[in-house]
């Protein structure tokens, strides 16, 4: 049993290390393509690692330490997201355009693979709450990163799409009712998928900026409706709980300020 536990922990650490090395390797390739000066290249690779660190920390902080086949798919998505972040930093520094085919080339599979890790988890019987949270945090970091180049192109309002989930978490620190777990919602799941697809489409260089802005505006409205729907549901559920239960939930800090909201 002890040997099995050690082997599981080593495998998780290897997965985390491979993710970091993969991010660095992809970042170097992207920097070479962008022909960025030394300091710009270093900043870009660091930006990629910052996104990847969200997923890596999600693995190494687990107690007990473990990783699953589905987690490896998510970590692979994080590497692609790190490549996107590297390109985004280079674009912000002027080495690449904000909307480029290279960014779409990495962002599209990172988004499409979001449908794979859940399937892998179910088919291998390795679905876990930690895996779901890893997937959610990776999604959130990627969505925020993809809004940055669009904010440069279309205006800072686009950042609201990437920041909304973090705003929800911040609001939950002040409002205990929002820390409760959310029930499964197909509407929420479809809305999240739409955000990712729309962001990738808006990043395609040949898509007119006016069309991209219109589609993103509708997407933001849908996302706002989804969050408002969940906030109302959580508040209503909280109001129906006995006062004693509400007090205990607030004292225990259910969800630790990070509700499972994708």
From TrEMBL:
<keyword id="KW-1133">Transmembrane helix</keyword>
<dbReference type="InterPro" id="IPR000462">
    <property type="entry name" value="CDP-OH_P_trans"/>
</dbReference>
<feature type="transmembrane region" description="Helical">
    <location>
        <begin position="12"/>
        <end position="33"/>
    </location>
</feature>
<dbReference type="Pfam" id="PF01066">
    <property type="entry name" value="CDP-OH_P_transf"/>
</dbReference>
<keyword id="KW-0472">Membrane</keyword>
<feature type="transmembrane region" description="Helical">
    <location>
        <begin position="72"/>
        <end position="96"/>
    </location>
</feature>
<protein>
    <submittedName>
        <fullName>CDP-alcohol phosphatidyltransferase family protein</fullName>
    </submittedName>
</protein>
<comment type="similarity">
    <text>Belongs to the CDP-alcohol phosphatidyltransferase class-I family.</text>
</comment>
<dbReference type="InterPro" id="IPR048254">
    <property type="entry name" value="CDP_ALCOHOL_P_TRANSF_CS"/>
</dbReference>
<feature type="transmembrane region" description="Helical">
    <location>
        <begin position="39"/>
        <end position="60"/>
    </location>
</feature>
<dbReference type="InterPro" id="IPR043130">
    <property type="entry name" value="CDP-OH_PTrfase_TM_dom"/>
</dbReference>
<keyword id="KW-0812">Transmembrane</keyword>
<keyword id="KW-0808">Transferase</keyword>
<feature type="transmembrane region" description="Helical">
    <location>
        <begin position="140"/>
        <end position="166"/>
    </location>
</feature>
């Amino acid at each position: 049993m002890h040997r099995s536990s050690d082997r599981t922990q080593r495998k998780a650490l290897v997965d985390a290390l491979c993710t970091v090395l993969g991010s660095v390797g992809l970042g170097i390739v992207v920097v070479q393509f962008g022909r960025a000066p030394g300091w710009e290249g270093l900043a870009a690779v660091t930006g990629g690692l910052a996104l990847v660190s969200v997923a890596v920390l999600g693995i190494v902080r687990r107690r007990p330490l473990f990783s699953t086949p589905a987690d490896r798919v998510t970590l692979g998505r994080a590497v692609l997201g790190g490549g996107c972040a590297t390109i985004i930093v280079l674009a912000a520094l002027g080495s690449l355009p904000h909307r480029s085919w290279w960014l779409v080339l990495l962002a599209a599979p990172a988004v499409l693979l979001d449908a794979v890790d859940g399937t892998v988890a179910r088919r291998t019987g390795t679905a876990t709450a930690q895996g779901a949270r890893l997937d959610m945090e990776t999604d959130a970091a990627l969505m925020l990163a993809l809004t940055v180049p669009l904010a440069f192109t279309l205006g800072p309002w686009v950042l609201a799409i990437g920041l909304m989930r973090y705003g929800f978490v911040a609001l939950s620190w002040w409002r205990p009712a929002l820390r409760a777990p959310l029930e499964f919602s197909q509407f929420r799941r479809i809305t999240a998928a739409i955000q990712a697809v729309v962001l990738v489409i808006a990043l395609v260089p040949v898509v007119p900026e006016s069309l991209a802005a219109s589609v993103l505006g509708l997407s933001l409205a849908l996302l706002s409706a989804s969050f408002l729907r969940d906030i109302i549901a959580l508040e209503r559920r909280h109001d129906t709980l006995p006062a004693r239960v509400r007090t205990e939930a607030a004292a225990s800090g259910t969800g630790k300020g990070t509700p499972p909201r994708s």
